[in-house]
Amino acid sequence: MFCIKRAAVILFCLFFLSGCFRGASEVTVGTESAAESTTALKQPVSTEDGETTESEAETAADVTEEITEAEEMTEAEEMTEAEEMTEAEEITEAEEITETEEMTEAETVPESATEAAPVPPAHNGSAPVPVPGEITYIDGILVVNKTYPLPADYNPGVDRTAQDALWDMISAAKQDGLSLWARSGFRSYNDQLWQYNVYVERDGAAVADTYSARPGHSEHQSGLAFDMNSLDRAFADTAEGRWLAENSYKYGFIIRYPAGKEHVTGYMYEPWHVRYVGIDVAKEVFEAGVCLEEYLGITSEYADATALEP
Ligand SMILES: [Zn+2]
Q1: What is the span of the domain harbouring residue 203?
Q2: How far is the CA of 179 from the centre of ligand 1 (A)?
Q3: Is 298 helix (H, G, I), strand (E, B) or coil?
Q4: Please, is 173 exposed, middle or buried when counting C-beta atoms within 10 Å of its C-beta (0-12, 13-18, 19+)?
């Protein structure tokens, strides 16, 4: 009896345990809701409890593995997708950046092209050849630079129109609370000869040529040029210097030797030196951001490389 009872208890326990496995397996599969795993689970079904328990335990283990695989695959797929999305996003971003850069460049190019491209010369012919003893005019504009000299006997004094314009400009600056004044204007051939020689003695001809004209090549001899306030590069950063740079064209003046045009004008930047060319021309030169040489399509170079000796 004892043995039968014991056997019955063992059988009962086995039956109970097998029920637990089956339930657990179903719950697990149901929870995961993986279609393939559910199919795999339903295949091995046994009627004998002992074997059933084992086989179902194995099945449960298989299912767990399959679920794990399924999860891993899913994760792998998801990772791949995530990576692909990330890559796609990155590509999109990269493309967008490229597009943005291209747009920026495209937007910038016309502006810089406008700034960089010199306006067509105002005159229609080629640059005139300088004739010794004669004054060069291009489209009515008197030209004097390293290429085009003035005759030694050209001695006009201060140009009246330029002087009136200078007075208007000084008055306008005064209205803005600024003190503009002309420290020098007309300079004769002989005055320039004396001054240039002083500079050559001090700095040598090569250096003097970068800031002082040889006699006959000074714009001051035309009576159309003025040096304002201070012969110092720092003048450009003063209120008066900035005002002059921004407003002088309204009165017919241009900053004759601008910064960045040294190789064209043949002179260092002179923020104080203005030249009267009339309001229309001054406005065009100012708005084009060019120097007078570029505006007229001419050079400014001495015929001989050797500077005059004192
Ligand atoms: Zn000057």
Answers
A1: 136-296
A2: 18
A3: coil
A4: buried
Contacts of residues 88-96 at CB distance under 8 Å and 24 or more positions apart, as own/partner, are none
Distance in Å, CA 273 to ligand 1 centroid: 5
* pLDDT tens for each residue of 283-294: 999 999 999 999
User: What residues have a C-beta under 5 A from ligand 1, the ion?
Assistant: 227, 273
Burial 45-64 (b: 16+ CB within 10 A, else e): eeeebeebbebbeebbebbe
The partner residues of 253 in beta bridges, in order of sequence, read 276
Q: Is residue 308 part of a domain?
A: no
Q: Do residue 106 and residue 230 come from a single domain?
A: no
Tell me how far the alpha carbon of residue 224 lies from the centroid of ligand 1, in angstroms: 10
Are 142 and 263 in the same domain? Answer: yes
Q: Looking at the structure, do residues 174 and 217 belong to the same domain, yes or no?
A: yes
Query: Annotated catalytic residue: which of 66, 240, 270, 294?
Result: 270
270 among known catalytic residues: yes
Distance of CA 125 to the CA centre of its chain: 36
140 and 109 housed in the same domain: no
How far away, in angstroms, is 126 Cα from ligand 1 center? 28
Q: Is the pLDDT of residue 52 over 50?
A: no
Output 35 or 309, whichever has higher pLDDT: 309
